[in-house]
Amino acid sequence: MATRLSRASLAVLFSEWETQPIAALEAVSLGVPLLVADNSGLAELTSRGLSRSVALADPPERYAAAMLQQLRHPLERPDVEVATWDGCADALADLYRRVGRSGARR
Hey, what domains does the chain have and what are their CATH numbers? Predict the structure, then answer.
């Protein structure tokens, strides 16, 4: 999947709700230009300069224009370090170890 996504000219995610937008984060991590609806967790990506967005209620013509703009003039995103699954698992395991040690002292 990552190989196919990395070859994309544009990733588009117009979901009504995303609590953890994995597909969008994968696109960001691969350097694929990203266009999202400016709602839920997706709005944070735009606020950090990682994507462009359109309002979920915009008409289809606005979506099409935004896609063309992003294809013709991709957003220059800041360099970001994207967490890996292994890194997240290690951080969570470390948190559990620290909490376990502090609970043992009581």
Answer: 2-80 (3.40.50)
